[in-house]
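Quick note —
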Amino acid sequence: MKMTPELKKAKDNMQPGEITSEGFLGDDQRELVDIIEKDEEIMESMGIDYTDLVEKMHYVMNEGRKGLGESIKVDEKWDVRVDESRGFLACPFEDGIFRKINVIVKNISNDEEIIFTDLSVHLLEKHHFHQGKGTNFRLNPKKLKKVFYE
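Predicted structure written out below.
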């Protein structure tokens, strides 16, 4: 894959202060295309399908919302808390806006925890973008496996 004008624009939108104060790249100096390709390789090597993962993430988010801001157990596998705030966040790829929803998921069997947002799920589903290393909302592929598949 090569850095298209669309990817260059998305990378500009990911800089701190554009959409979020922290941005989407953290201290990751790689090109956006390289970040995406490397994470795709890792996901494939672990046998994780993006469609299946996104379905699980939507499922735990929707189930977690039933807790109304309190932590609840989902399927006896996860402790889930969903915090919703007023407002929206735009996708840096300029293909949607998403509610400010933080989802904290802990795998009960191994205590591994991850935090993601409605926008994070979209970024995975549509762009295979896990965010850059060093961001608070990076969806590390190995962490995703521990939380959702172990």
